[in-house]
Amino acid sequence: xxxxxxxxxxxxxxxxxxxxxxxxxxxxxxxxxxxxxxxxxxxxxxxxxxxxxxxxxxxxxxxxxxxxxxxxxxxxxxxxxxxxxxxxxxxxxxxxxxxxxxxxxxxxxxxxxxxxxxxxxxxxxxxxxxxxxxxxxxxxxxxxxxxxxxxxxxxxxxxxxxxxxxxxxxxxxxxxxxxxxxxxxxxxxxxxxxxxxxxxxxxxxxxxxxxxxxxxxxxxxxxxxxxxxxxxxxxxxxxxxxxxxxxxxxxxxxxxxxxxxxxxxxxxxxxxxxxxxxxxxxxxxxxxxxxxxxxxxxxxxxxxxxxxxxxxxxxxxxxxxxxxxxxxxxxxxxxxxxxxxxxxxxxxxxxxxxxxxxxxxxxxxxxxxxxxxxxxxxxxxxxxxxxxxxxxxxxxxxxxxxxxxxxxxxxxxxxxxxxxxxxxxxxxxxxxxxxxxxxxxxxxxxxxxxxxxxxxxxxxxxxxxxxxxxxxxxxxxxxxxxxxxxxxxxxxxxxxxxxxxxxxxxxxxxxxxxxxxxxxxxxxx
Length: 525
Hints:
- The structure is a single chain.
- By secondary structure, the chain is α+β, with helices and mostly antiparallel strands.
- It has helices at about 15-25, 65-80, 85-90, 105-125, 175-180, 190-195, 230-235, 275-280, 320-340, 360, 390, 395, 465, 470-490, 495, 500-510, and strands at about 1-10, 30-35, 125-130, 135-140, 145-150, 160-170, 185, 210, 215-220, 255, 265, 280-285, 300, 305-310, 355, 380, 405-410, 415, 425-430, 435, 450.
- It has 2 domains: about 1-190 and about 375-510, FAD/NAD(P)-binding domain (3-Layer(bba) Sandwich), CATH 3.50.50.60; about 210-360, no CATH class.
- The strands form 7 sheets. Strands 1, 2, 3, 4, 5, 6 and 21 form a 7-stranded mixed beta sheet that branches.
- Helix 1 packs parallel to helix 14.
């Protein structure tokens, strides 16, 4: 079994992992960045989800590197796509004209921009990228993680990588489990956290649904109906059995409005490029294209109808995880077949036979994303845990989130929990623009491991607004910078966090690196 060594090992090449590597390399540290799929970027690419962002993203509330990523996406379209003059001149171009974000773009474009951002550090030898590497074990000595074992999914060989610092940027917090790092999973009880919306009983198996996304185009002249998926009848008739109730079957345009939890019926009209669901995560819209070059429009299906509720994949055996992931794929393909054959049309008919999967968009053979969209991870037991009481508008009874004098970044999003494996319906409540406290990145015991994504010190409830793209990026970037800072000074994160002068020194470095530490204004969202 081969062995090697690096200064900083970033396990997981998703949104937070890429940001971690960029941050650490900017301070001259050597980084090995591993990724289980062949696409870096996680939510933005392999999971195919356009970024969920807050309303002030164009002017504040993210790091300089995340802003450079956003600008890079827009410039990519302007450089290479036959867009019309109005689109070319738009400084806030929304490439797909989707309604969920001001930056709805194709996963491949996000991937190209991330690869371009990494390229200079790869060229100078600061970042070494290992694609299709899956972590399988960890070696620890006392309170330190000294090495992580991987399997090369192409070669089948096992390899150990030793490191001074290990950053867990996996989608499920896998290194936490492999290394025996203290963590929590699922929902804490109200007695444990004091949160207004926490359940009465703790349940480690109660996590937000995962979703296997897919991209679809529409050909008004064609019939692209696929073969009926396995278990289609099961998913067509599926009642999620949520509390409060879901209004009928899951494969329906009538679903639960997340905030009010009253029934709401979506509109869907790919023929005219209209409808709330068609526009929601649209990746390719015709309006930006020059006359004579207009393509078929494409939208990304990450809807309530393909949220998978039938099981938790955290701390489960390989066979059970594989079974759930296969069922999630069947559910998504069943949704697509239902759209083609049974979904109600505006003209009173049923089915949109002209819909077709876009495997070129997702980089797969079948048109489903390379990996499922994971909303909830293991979370470290941290020196400080963010709760609803720090960020929730109702819970605080104020118009400002808690102030953290150890802030390492900012974020903003509603506390948005999708239906969960514990059969809870949406929990979608107003939050306040918040800070990311350093204490939430510092483990209670282990000295050289840092969370670099959704696995920071939050609760099931507060994670609902700390899990989105810009925040995951900020957490990852802060973790990469903190690891490099600690290496430069021969310190552990606990020593930095426990010393006010060192916290302020690190915050000065963060500001120099373009990380915002506080909000200019705060408003409920």
